Amino acid sequence: MEDSRPLDALNKARNKRVIVELKNGKQYIGKLNAFDIHINVVLEDAEEYVEEIVEKEVDGKKVSVKTGNRVMKRKLGVIFLRGDTIIIISPTQ
Questions:
Q1: Among 60, 72, 63, which Cα is nearest to 27's?
Q2: DSSP secondary structure letters along 41-92
Q3: CA gap 28, 77 in Å, rounded
Q4: What whole-number distance in Å separates Cα of residue 86 and Cα of residue 20?
Q5: Looking at residue 45, what is its pLDDT?
Q6: Would you state the pLDDT for residue 64?
Q7: The sheet that has 86-91: what strands, in order across it?
Q8: What angle do CA 30, 33, 37 make, to 5 degrees?
Q9: What kind of fold does domain 6-91 have according to CATH?
Q10: In Å, how far are 9, 24, 33, 57, 89 from 39, measured between CA atoms?
Q11: For residue 89, what are the β-bridge partners?
């Protein structure tokens, strides 16, 4: 049966691992525990991922460059993410 509403798709992902991307570029991966109509989300066993930054030398100056790779910054456990900061919620494999 096809999901008819966005909240139906979220409900289908409940108790499964999801990736949540925020407006500030951070990503959180964890088990979707709960959500509400504002898309406020509670994740269990959450881990925070950030884009890897390396320093390179360009024209004799050191500059920070984003590599495009995501690296785990820290394990957070249970977290609450405010819905108006969320861009994407996607199930993981």
A1: 72
A2: EEEEEEEEEEEEEEEEEETTEEEEEEEEEEEEEEEEEEEEE-GGGEEEEEE-
A3: 11
A4: 7
A5: 97
A6: 86
A7: 61-81, 41-58, 27-35, 17-22, 86-91
A8: 115
A9: SH3 type barrels. (2.30.30)
A10: 12, 17, 12, 42, 10
A11: 20
10-residue block means of pLDDT along the chain (93 residues)? 77 95 94 96 96 86 85 94 96 83
Q: Which residue(s) pair with 75 in the sheet?
A: 47
Per-residue pLDDT, 51: 85
Query: Which residue do the tokens 């409940």 mark?
Result: 14
Look at residue 37 in the predicted model and tell me its pLDDT: 93
Q: Which two tokens stand for residue 4?
A: 């008819």
In this predicted structure, what is the pLDDT of residue 32?
Answer: 97
The rounded radius of gyration (Å) of the Cα atoms in the chain is 16
